[in-house]
Design a protein that fits this description.
The structure is a single chain. This protein is an alpha/beta fold. The chain has a single domain, classed as Rossmann fold. It has 13 helices and 9 strands. The strands form 2 sheets. A 7-stranded mixed sheet has the order 3-2-1-4-5-9-6, sandwiched between helices. Strands 7-8 form a two-stranded antiparallel sheet. The radius of gyration is 19 Å and the shape is globular. The N terminus is likely disordered. The structure holds benzoic acid. The site of benzoic acid (BEZ) has 8 residues, from loops.
Amino acid sequence: MDAAFTDADVLDDAKRAAAPATRANDAELKEVKKDVRAVNAGTTEPRAAARHSVGTLAAESHASDSHESVRPLAGQVWDAAAYARNGRFVAELAAPLLEWLAPQSGERVLDLGCGDGVLSEQIASAGCTVVGADASAELVAAACARGVDARLIDGQALHFANAFDAVFSNAALHWMRRDPDAVIAGVHRALKPGGRFVAEMGGAGNVAAIRAALYNALALRGVDAASVDPWYFPKADEYQARLEAAGFEVRRIESFARPTPLPGDVSGWLLTFAQSFLQSLPAAEREPLVLEVREALRPILGRRIVGAVWMADYVRLRFVAVRT
Ligand code: BEZ
């Protein structure tokens, strides 16, 4: 499978995927650069720490998370098993968002970016009819295997009209970087009048240390990480303005830090969620990059609480908006 993709393909695809993002994100890019500077200023010699890297990923605690299970194709490719290992916490931490949704029996709900369907299932268990939408064929297949009515759909090109009482989205909107306004317009169209859009995504400053470490490590290899960065983490006021411009009334919106314990060290997270960055390098250079980034982050993320649990520096943006 890998042999079908040359490094040139990978780089070309990454550039193509990243190019339209500038439309939405010039301002955000400035913020990212600020984050990188701030993290650098507060970091104890990440490059020196990187030299302490020992062993290989396969030999350490993430043996089961080695690249073998995450196919190194262009862009982000989801592997349902790796996602279950390294990303199960995403659904486990969604209880407050489900409370905000407050699903009622008989409602029709669209789960936008449904992933492997764990939350779609929970919403359905409240008596709702749930449609899952996701842009990953692998995750749609995993959701269907759970019995979810999941469909392969680009969230930036939703085709539903007046079809749902609620659109729910957890930890997915930040992947729809190319055209956030198209996402919001599609959600607005998909809702019945009075329907609600209840969502949580990464907010401004999300994974700032992880992002900065990736930017630094790639810069040392001559790669401009901004050109392959797949994430959109807006400030609350920016996203609220987009919602209102599309015809939503924002009932609640909050942005807050939520340090998030990882199931292992940060390498499993990087292999699962940071593929766009890794694929900007030739295959042989990716594992050294992951090890270097991990060691750069160890003093920042690896020592937040006693017991050596790695805490990712998540910032959440959570909101309820109603179609007027
Ligand atoms: C998040 O949920 O904030 C997130 C997950 C993976 C990559 C980036 C952000």
